[in-house]
Fold each of these.
Amino acid sequence: METISISKTTLLKLYYEMLKIRKFQLKVEAEYHKDEMKTPLHLCIGQEAAAAGVCMNLKKTDYVFSSHRGHGHFLAKGGSLKKLAAELHCKETGCSRGRGGSMHLIAAEVSHMGSSAIVGGSIPIATGAALSSVLKKDGRVSVVFFGDAATEEGVFFESMNFAALKKLPVVYVCENNFYSVCSHQSAREANLDISMRAKAFDIPSYQIDASDVCQVYLKSKQAIDYAREGRGPVLLECRAYRFRAHAGAGDSHRDAYRKPDEWKEWIKKDPVKNLKNRLVREKILTKVKIDKVTKAIDKEIKEAFKFAQESPLPDKKDLEKYLFS
């Protein structure tokens, strides 16, 4: 793992962001059975490094567009933990006023411009946002996160072609967790190297082991700098692993569709634990610091859930509010 170009301060920030995303997901999972969160749920446990590593390199004004599995992207870009918890509880104080739920998150105040339940749906929108940045000369970079199944959509290729043609400042981040619901990538795709698909458009691309946040951070910095310099788009294939089911809490049918022992092997590469262990080995983190960070995050999450549970539901008279006809 490369850490030479990463300061101790940045490494600690990466650990904090990943741990916050992980612990929030675990809290959501633990509470989901109470049926107070009236929304479909797609957890990103195991994929925290892609969100934290990429977003750490972005400015507040840089755009992020996300997918249905977007809690990590929302938090890593600086979205409010309280507003996220409230949105999952469908409360008026949520980031989408309780009307979007888990798959439709937005935090325009930090340039997280929304997530979509449509597979690949955010890819052309991010490409369009990058075009607007070129026309306005505002220096912004657009980053769009999507899963491996989104690369099977025609719009993925159409967007890359247009972005390459116009040299747009957009970074396409594929979080390849190898599964579309319960269907393994090998059952769906003839070529399993998603990064090479950018070569058809002469777009630089990198395949990254996203169990290592240091790799993600360094390669995404390179990609974001390249795009910001006006040289065009970049594709990052971040190979992570989805520790839970496609949707909901847990993964009760794991052994029915996952390859034997596959899950166990990936658990050994847990990105959060691996970074913590490295920081301890390098004496950047001590047990006292770990306890302090953990308690601070636990307190923040507890307050976020309390805020969500005490917040009001949308008023029935506002049923048609925010609708366009």
Amino acid sequence: MINFIFISVIINLTFCLFFKKISLRINIFDVPNDNRKIHKKKVAAIGGFLYLINLILFLSYLIIFDDFLDKYKINFLNGLKKYFSFFFISSLIFIVGVIDDKVNLSALKKLIIFISLIIFSLIDRNIIISFLNFEFLNFKILLNEMGIFFSIISIFYFMNALNMYDGINIQTPLYLFLLFVFLIFKEQNFVIFLIIPSIFFLFLNFKGKCFLGNSGTYFLGYLISIILIKLNQANSNLLTTEEILILISIPSIELFRLFFERIIKKKNPLSADTNHIHHFLMKDFNNLTTSLITNGLIFIPLVISQFTNHKIIIFILQFCLYFLLIYKLKKNKVKKNYL
């Protein structure tokens, strides 16, 4: 494990030290060509490459040291079908994201491609959500034939939720870092291959030098989805359904709210706007404070939930707090516009 950490740190440090040359070589930039963009100059959207490099390193490490799987409790990666899903499909999703960053694929094309790739990934049956086990119910809700459909929709939904959550500097890399820290708290030490690049990317993003890009958000959205599903389905007491709901809450609820509001206003639900929670908060706060507030809405309830068996109540309160905050922010926006 120590040698893996050392190699990973060296690779990530090299990426940061030669970041300017690497970004010019890859040549994928987010250009502020409309009023939605908060940044004023073009920024390299290659943060996803940092995570892909670490995924490749992780795969190489597993092949060389095959006892790593048993030692660090990731038996769900044993077998060629599981490797296919975890490494090959996630890499294809990354490539599609890169193409999207380059040529801006239509929403319909991305829908067809991503759904197709997710369906192919279900060759690994461990990705299928076969049951939901809520602590407060004390029994499993079996999904039976609906499990495959529910799994496809859940993975695709979170991929888009994370993509939409990635709107300002610090917010998403901080979310990723804290999410992986939580998984390490749950003794899933294998996510070290994701937490190390999160630290380096957080630094680059904080400095305004690098964005995740669509390649990074879709790629990580897929990886996080299958990790959470596999851990929950393998041991629902280790990672409960309620904990997952709290963990993915704000990005997921935000996506649902924005889609619903756009449909009500007879707009394209996939159109971009400035009605995200971070846009409202940015009226009064800087990037750092805004990111602390949005991520605080996720991880403070998550920490509290570790001290109670009534985690569903924490999630409901979190849900209500989000919409109360949105209501207050919108009300303040109306007042400011009026004045």
Amino acid sequence: MSLRLLGIAACLVACGCASTQLNYNTVDLASSLNSLTKRQIFFNLAQALTDPEFVPSQVTISVGTAQTLNSVAPSIAAPLGNPVLTTTRVGSTGGVGAAADFVSTAIGSVTPTLGVQFVDTWNQSWTISPINSSTQVRRLRALYQYATGTLSRRDRTVDLTLDEAEKQFLCEYPIQGLAVAPHSDNLVFKIEGCPNNNTRESEARIVHADPTFVQGAGCVICIDDLNAKQLRPHVNANLKYHFMRRQKTGDMVGVGSYGSIDFYVCDSSDGNCPRVVGQAPFDGHKAFSDFILFVYEAALVATSGGSGRGSGGSFVYSIR
């Protein structure tokens, strides 16, 4: 009975350990999302600064799975017959001129045994969706170049003014749109003065935009009044131009690095930090936090059927 109780107790302990381990693995998996996101963002920021042919490498993380298995395999060995064994041996010994007989008796008992085998396995995995749509990648490229001040221009040694940067970003950021059809639900508007890569002349561009992506706090390109006679798109005020810097000057602080490249932002809106012409003071920490959310927004695609947003295909990255 005591052996059986011991086995039951071991199983209960294992079940409790499994629950605790599962909770720990789940929290650990969830806490890694932020670091995974920042790491690939820092990689792309570094590429935007160093690679003239920069094309972002980005994945979206959709589903996380944490699995834990604890098992106990107790084994009990007990004698089925008489647990007491008696062995008797009769013999004689003889020496020079003498002889003697003896009887030897040995009594032994078979002892029951208990064995317990513990198994502890766990698995953590993320399901990630690689971004390979050209329009998604163009949106991300424009975002990273806007954040690092590397938007294309004739003289790369001279930074764009805020008005110039916002104008160019409006032209280069392809807003999410539904399929263009004779009776599409897209908003249609024109952006004037977009630069042309092969001439010094500018051109106008017609934009078809899903209304879902130009409203609310998360819009990258926003339109305040959808019912206005003339739609006026503008860059979200929380998306700051050239807020990310490679060199620490004034009141700037480090927020991360990739390889040999360190990244700095202004510590507060009251700090002495470099800004482009026409730009008001801002908090670099908030600008970076908002930028991460804008990356999430740019990775989404417009979908029909009322769902509004989607992210594409996926595959599983697993750690055991």
